[in-house]
Amino acid sequence: TGTMMLELQERVSELENWTDGKGLIIHGAGNTFCSGSDLNVVKAISNSQASGDRSEDGMNMCMFMQSTLTRLMRLPLISVALVQGKAFGGGAELSTACDFRAGGGTGWALRSFPTQTVPGWGGAARLVAIVGHGAALRLLSGATGVDPETARHLGLSEETLGSSDGSGALEEARAWLGRHTEGPASVVRATKEVVAAGRELPLEAALRTEKDIFGRVWGGPANLQALERRAKHK
């Protein structure tokens, strides 16, 4: 819904100011990760055609959510979408804004079939980066959801969790994420930043960014403590 879109933006703003954070898990309630756009909202935007604002309203929603999900993707946190159950349309797009996707979801469909439209929140561009051009085209043009085995095979999902209940799956996701967020926050966040730079920037710009981030971490408290520990073990 429109309210949920605003709430998501607010949460992203809070996370941008969470300076000591290392990881993030996004999950849904019950058997649905996120079912995508509320059809009543979509219908309301479509019905505004009489005033000539249908295209403008749709584009405003598109740009708002592109901005929010891009900011989510760029957070210096290692993020996991815990996909339990269905992730359709905008919900599937939300999952692509995370670094990893895990879970035992039985339905993942990026294309919004009820409204016969295409991704507009950046999901298609991110999907190409995740699974490649050919697989992305097959997923977007197919008429069925993606099962966990196919998601793993394509590289869309990182892990299939054993727990079927929400609390058990969340604990599994926390344990999995914990293996990638060990160590000081400054180093984990810097790692995410250099990877994000390599993904989004041209090579020369990515190299400059990596150099700057390395310079920020090198000689810092975590680096000096690690060097001291290694010296003592020799």
Automatic annotation (TrEMBL):
Name of a matching Pfam family: ECH_1
Keyword Lyase annotated: yes
EC number(s) stated in the UniProt entry for this protein: 4.1.1.94
Gene3D superfamilies, A to Z: 2-enoyl-CoA Hydratase, Chain A, domain 1 (3.90.226.10)
Domain of life: Eukaryota
Keywords attached to this entry: Cytoplasm, Lyase
Biological processes annotated in GO: fatty acid beta-oxidation
Purpose of the protein: Decarboxylates ethylmalonyl-CoA, a potentially toxic metabolite, to form butyryl-CoA, suggesting it might be involved in metabolite proofreading. Acts preferentially on (S)-ethylmalonyl-CoA but also has some activity on the (R)-isomer. Also has methylmalonyl-CoA decarboxylase activity at lower level.
Protein name listed in UniProt: Ethylmalonyl-CoA decarboxylase
